[in-house]
Specification:
The complex is a heterodimer of chains A (165) and B (185). Chain A is mainly beta. In chain A, 0% of the residues lie in helices and 50% in strands. Chain B has 185 residues and is mainly β. Chain B has one helix spanning 3-12, and strands at residues 20-27, 34-37, 46-53, 63-67, 75-82, 86-94, 97-98, 112-119, 128-136, 146-154, 163-167, 177-183. The chains are: A mainly beta (165), B mainly beta (185).
């Protein structure tokens, strides 16, 4: 039986780095899922697709930090920003957990993404949900993660393919 | 290699199995606002629907969910929605649940996406709870984007065998795709 949910690639940072890249992504699947366990001094997480640095991204966010809930929008920006929430520090033992779903990534329509971002440090934390748009009809063949490279050794990113019947 | 050793090796090598299986897919036709998954087997622990959809013409229809063809007032749902501002709602004794929050701008160009989970769908002793996460962003083309978290309840203890997703108005365009997955316990 064909595998429906399959790991494509994984990267673990052995030294601090500002980016992680997944390239040469085959058009074999229906959706992609990116799972990121992130450590470091600040939880920046932004994404560019196919090397597109143009202002072709937009997003709508919903977040809560235990004190307040908020919602915001960004339009015509140069990356899909999953950061959101309130700035704060994760550590190697209290990491930030993110999942980003790329729907119909190999199709010929604009691409919509859903992401979740969660951190709880027993006194500080937040949860963020984001929907994003990449205004490009090309199939996604590369995903660039833009990270804050302050002491993020141990950050892990894994890309999965999900294939419908 | 000895044929005897080869046979022994193949019998003892771990078989590749999957706990996440694709059950069925459905696509929009351009002339219907309804998608149905039927004859769903009771062999999984949970179901998941992942979808990307468009409407053939612009609108802000409700995207309704009904189970087992039940059109009675046996559903309830709640949502938390962000559009740049926050909106919450809770509705009881409804004739359907929702896949995504209401008032999302939809057309043939800007995708709306959702992931809907139904846990313990095959139980015959529990009412059915669903959760859904979805939304759409149309950049500056639409007045707003929407990201939403939803919960839904079907007040019926039958196993879920049919899932119907329907628009309150308009049709799903032909590049709309809905995929049903089963997750084994």
């Amino acid at each position: 039986m064909a595998t429906t949910y399959e790991k494509i690639a994984t990267t673990t940072l052995g030294s601090s780095a500002a980016t992680i890249t997944f390239s040469s992504i085959a058009a074999t699947y229906t959706d992609l899922r990116l799972v990121i366990v992130q450590v470091g001094n600040y939880q920046d997480l932004q994404i560019r697709l196919n090397g597109d640095t143009g202002t072709n991204y937009s997003m709508t966010q919903l977040s809560g930090n235990g004190t307040a809930a908020s919602s915001s929008r960004q339009t015509n920006v140069a990356q899909y920003d999953c950061s959101g929430g309130t700035a704060g520090n994760s550590t190697t033992s209290l990491p930030l957990f993110s999942i980003i779903d790329f729907f119909s990534y190999a199709g010929s329509t604009f691409k919509t993404m859903l992401s979740t971002k969660s951190l709880d440090m027993n006194g500080y934390g937040f949860t963020v949900r984001t929907v994003g748009l990449w205004r490009n009809t090309a199939a996604i063949t590369s995903i660039l993660l833009l990270l804050n490279n302050a002491d993020n050794v141990g950050t892990t990113a894994t890309l999965y393919g999900i294939k419908a019947a | 290699m000895s044929p005897i050793l080869g046979i022994w090796a193949s019998q003892n090598y771990p078989r590749i199995t999957s706990s996440y299986e694709s059950i069925a897919t459905a696509t929009g036709t351009g002339s219907s606002g309804t998608i149905t998954f039927s004859s769903i087997p009771s062999t999984y622990a949970s179901l998941q629907i992942r979808c990307t959809f468009f409407t053939a013409a612009y609108g802000t229809p409700n995207v309704n969910v009904q189970l087992n063809g039940d059109t009675g007032s046996n559903y309830a749902f709640h949502w938390l929605r962000g559009t740049g501002s926050i909106h919450v709602t809770g509705q009881n004794s409804q004739s359907n649940m929702r896949l995504v929050p209401s008032s999302i701008d939809m057309d043939a160009t800007y995708p709306t996406v959702a992931i809907m989970d139904i846990h313990d769908y095959a139980s015959t002793t529990k009412n059915t709870t669903i959760r859904s996460f979805g939304g759409s962003d149309g950049d500056t083309y639409f007045a707003s984007g929407t990201v939403g978290l939803l919960s839904g309840l079907w007040l019926n203890t039958n196993a879920v065998s049919t899932i119907t997703i329907s628009l309150s108005a308009g049709n799903f365009s032909t590049n709309s795709t809905f995929a049903l997955y089963g997750i084994k316990g």
